[in-house]
Every structure is written in C-alpha cells, then in structure tokens.
Amino acid sequence: METDRFKYFCTIVETGSLSKAADLLGVSHSGLSKAMSVLKNELGCDLFRPQGRGLEITEEGREVYDKCKSVLAGIEGLRLKGKKLSQVIRIGVQEVLSHSLTGKIVASLEGEIELFELDSGEIEVSLLEGKIDFGFTFVPFPQKGIEYLKIAKAAFGSFCKRGSFRNVAPEDIPYVIPSSELKGNPLSFKFRDGWNKNIPRFSPYKADNLSAALNIVQEGVAAIYIPKFLAKSMNSSLNANGHLVEVPMPSERQTAEVTWREIFLIKMGHETKEMKRVTRVIRLALNS
C-alpha cells in the first residue's frame, strides 16, 4: 500500500474535489481517480459519495482520513528525526494574501518553510538582500535583476457585515482603509488597498493592519475594500449573520468600484517547483 495514495486521499478530503486536488498536487485527474480506485479496493470500503459538483467523505472515509493523517505525520517525523532539514524555503507575501492562504501555501510544500508578511516594495528589497527566495505581490516596485511574472488576476470589491448599510447612500457609507498611502509605485495606486482614487469614499476609520480593519468591519460600522477570494475564505469560518457581503449600492457604482488586479510572482533566476506549487495554490484559491 503506497503512502502517496494516503496523501492524495487526504488532499481530496481537504479540497472536496478531485479536480482541485489534482491541480494542487500537480497530477492528472485520471491518475488521481485511478489511485483512489486502487485505495478503495485495498481498503474494501467506499471513501466518497457524490455531493453536487464535488465529493463528500463517507463515515468509513472519515475514519480512514484520520488514520492516514496519523501515518503521514509519523513518516514525516521519521524523515526529520536526528537530522537538520537541508533546505529552508523563504517566501515573502503581502498581508492580503497571507491572511487567507498561509496554511494552504505551507501545506503545498515540503521541508522547512519561513513565510514573511511584507509590504509592497519590501518584498523586492528582501529578495535582493537574500532574505527570501521569492515572493508574491499585487503592486510591483521594479528593481534591476528582479523578474515579475503575472500569475493570476483577483477581483476586488466593497464588503460589509451582512445587514449593514442597506439604506445608506454609497457616498455616505463609512470605510476602514489602510492608515498610510502607497507612494511611488508604477501602477499609480494612491491607496494600499487598490481603491480607485477617482471614486469618492467616506473613510473615517484607518487601521495599520488587515486583521484590525476586519475586526472593525465585523462590528458592522464600516465597509472594506478587499479581494473577493478573501471575503469568501473568511465566510467559510463565520456564521451566516457574520458573513461579509458586497456593499448594497446601485449597479453602476458597484461596477465602477470592482476592479481586477494582477498578482505577480517576484523572483530571481529560474522558476522552481516550489514557486510553481505556491502559484497553483493562489490560482486555486481565486477559482474556487
């Protein structure tokens, strides 16, 4: 019985989809499906049942999942016992990406991982100084010797706590925004959150980090401009009354506010397998 099948099975359980798991693992859909058929025959029980467009784990599958996780953890412990890891992977990411993707990024890689939450421009400096191996950003600050690869596009929009600001005019809706402006960037963003500076915004609240800003939003007193994938990720761990929903406003204003922003892989040298794996994680999060 191959332990790779255990890893494949656990990934399918955690993503809820053969397609998403195959993308994350870097294997073909047919190969992953065949591996699960072999595992099912070896164990003699059904592991999944269809659920909408995805899969739902059976009771027997849940027991197998718990045991597989234990086996994989044990194998990893044996691999690391008594020796120092040969490689440390150091990654720089902007706060808006790390807030919802840190766990998924770490889970996609092997070895010792160091994840640095860095501001726009700081990622380039850290890369040039050898403090990180690669990074991801929405706002590049071009530097000699650094290469930028566009890997995905993320939709941004205005969000508030469910039930807030239903009868408030768009120009009167209070926003919480970053406490400092973004200066000197080639994309001409004034605001760190990427807000279109030509659209008026009432912003009585400022926060120096995303967690603080989101706490203000959860009190129902302010809206926030964030990537849609971040709102969706947060909603997965909130009860329905606390869900983030797009701010109610006329469709013309909403269309004007919604923007698409590129995500860039920042690197020096060739593209490594670790870069490709993290890129897949980001793309999967945006498409889920």
Q: First CA to last CA: what distance?
A: 31 Å
CATH class category of the largest domain: Alpha Beta
* Percent of sequence in beta strands: 15-25%
- Write down the CATH topology of the largest domain: D-Maltodextrin-Binding Protein, domain 2
What is the β-strand count?
A: 11
Instruction: State the domain count.
Output: 3
Order of helices and strands: HHHEEHEHEHEEEEHEHEHEH
- Determine the mean pLDDT: 85
Query: What Rg, in angstroms, do the CA atoms define?
Result: 21 Å
Helix content: 40-55%
Unreliable residue runs? none
Helix/strand/pairing class, anyone? alpha/beta
Global geometry? globular
Per DSSP, the total helix count is 10
What composes the largest sheet?
A: 7 strands, mixed
CATH architecture of the largest domain: 3-Layer(aba) Sandwich
What structural keywords apply?
10 helices; seven-stranded mixed beta sheet; 288 residues; 3 domains; alpha/beta; two-stranded antiparallel sheet; single chain; D-Maltodextrin-Binding Protein, domain 2; Arc Repressor Mutant, subunit A; globular
What does it look like?
This protein is of the alpha/beta class and about 290 residues long. Helices cover about 40% and strands about 25% of the residues. It is built from ten helices and eleven strands.
